[in-house]
Design a protein that fits this description.
179 residues; two-stranded antiparallel ribbon
Length: 179
């Protein structure tokens, strides 16, 4: 979904062709390599978005001694569905790292809705943390099993607290418009 949001958001700003978008994604930071995005994956998503009617080819650029470049534009349907795809990305994200493409495209969504989604994620995270903590206190373990239980409780509690701090920080940054 992130790749499709990336493509749609770029085409919402200007028509382009797949190779150009991949090149933009790789400079100055090689996000394409970090995300393991190959040209074949990118072309697959262009084809998928075309079949869904969200983008359409608009022209073919021919150059001597170079492969033809098929230029695409976003359709009205694609422009209308882009915000929903971004909301879904935030809703389905397991961690903040899964939301990077959405964070880069907040111009296409209602920030208040993003804040609501993030606040809900924060509540769920706090419930998980509290559940793990209460579970450790309820279960009576001894010896090495107690050590193991305490270790895992500490690990998950720390992880949930850390993620919660980052979500709280993100909520504030989205709210005040600094992101």
């Amino acid at each position: 979904m992130s790749i499709q949001i990336y493509i749609l958001s770029k085409l919402a700003k200007e028509s382009s062709y797949p190779y150009k978008l991949k090149k933009e994604l790789s400079e100055p930071i090689p996000f394409d390599k970090l995300a393991n995005l190959t040209e074949s994956k990118l072309y697959y998503h262009f084809e998928s978005l075309t079949k869904q009617g969200l983008i359409e080819p608009t022209e073919i650029i021919k150059e001597d001694n170079r492969p033809d470049k098929q230029v695409f534009a976003i359709t009205e349907q694609g422009l209308a569905l882009l915000p929903n795809k971004i909301y879904q990305l935030f809703e389905k994200a397991d961690s903040l790292s899964d939301t990077i493409v959405g964070l880069m495209n907040l111009d296409f969504v209602d920030r208040a809705k993003i804040i609501i989604i993030l606040e809900e994620k924060l509540k769920k995270l706090e419930k998980k943390r509290d559940y793990i903590t209460s579970l450790n206190m309820q279960v009576k373990l001894e010896g090495s099993k107690k050590e193991g239980g305490d270790f895992l409780t500490g690990y998950f509690t720390s992880r949930f607290n850390n993620e919660g701090e980052w979500i709280s920080s993100l909520i504030e940054k989205v709210r005040n418009g600094s992101i």
